[in-house]
Amino acid sequence: MRAAAAIFIVLLAPVPALAYRPFDSTDAAVADPGAFEIEVSPLSYRHDNDGTAWIAPSARFNYAFSQNWEVVLEGEADHFAHGPSQLTEAALSLKTVLRNGSLQEASGWSFASEASLLLPGIGAENEAGLEWTGIASQRFEWGTVHFNIAALLTREQRSGVFTGLVLEGPSNLPVRPVAEFNYEREFGIGDEYSGLIGAIWRVSVHMAFDLAYRHAETDNRPDDQVRFGVTFDL
């Protein structure tokens, strides 16, 4: 989500209660038909076994081309303290709502599906992969829950699975706390466990800021990130 910022003009709007940022998982909702949404992180920080990297920018562009359907383009630019910059995490996705629920102002669970083509990067991730995600979301008085489960073929041509749980505080709070818990297994490589805590500040119905800290463990190797971003509509 960074190095070629010019390629990825950033978008994803804040439906007042929800946004992708700052999560790895997503929600069971799409934009209104004909709407463009932008989600961008101008600057984030990461430290893992590869060293220290600044992520600038990270971006996701959504376009809702029909009722309950949207297309998503995303990617990020990683700038290392020692070494060349890379364009990574690029993906082109198609997302659809399967059941209108509480996220669509109806009753019960909202269900959605997202199919993604994991695109090759620049300077890293030279191959392509595939991912399919099933998504369930429910809004309660005390907050909102999103559950993701995904099957994937990585860019290294290995199969894997991913599960994610997002918890958000009440949508009527101007600043609401958020948390996320994920598990990912890449068969033949290992497991990754991650947790995230943060907050989303809804400035208006058209703009929200987020700030979060994420810690992951991959076979006892730590990966720490500080994420900052903004979500808005055009």
| CATH homology superfamily name | monomeric porin ompg
Which architecture per CATH? Answer: Beta Barrel
Radius of gyration: 17 Å
Span of the ends, CA to CA:
19 Å
Description:
- The protein is mainly beta.
- It has one domain: Porin (Beta Barrel), CATH 2.40.160.
- Helix content is 0%, strand content 62%.
- The chain contains no helices and 13 strands.
- It has strands at 36-41, 44-48, 51-66, 69-80, 86-99, 110-118, 129-139, 144-153, 159-168, 175-186, 190-204, 207-218, 221-233.
- Strands 1, 2, 3, 4, 5, 6, 7, 8, 9, 10, 11, 12 and 13 form a 13-stranded antiparallel sheet that branches.
- The model is unreliable at 1-19 (pLDDT under 50).
Layout of secondary structure:
Blueprint: E1 36-41, E2 44-48, E3 51-66, E4 69-80, E5 86-99, E6 110-118, E7 129-139, E8 144-153, E9 159-168, E10 175-186, E11 190-204, E12 207-218, E13 221-233
Antiparallel strand pairs: 1-3, 1-13, 2-3, 2-13, 3-4, 4-5, 5-6, 6-7, 7-8, 8-9, 9-10, 10-11, 11-12, 12-13
Short description:
With 234 residues, this protein is mostly beta strands. The protein has strands at 36-41, 44-48, 51-66, 69-80, 86-99, 110-118, 129-139, 144-153, 159-168, 175-186, 190-204, 207-218, 221-233.
Name a few traits of the molecule.
single chain; 234 residues; mainly beta; Porin; 13-stranded antiparallel beta sheet; 13 strands; 0% helix; 62% strand; disordered N terminus
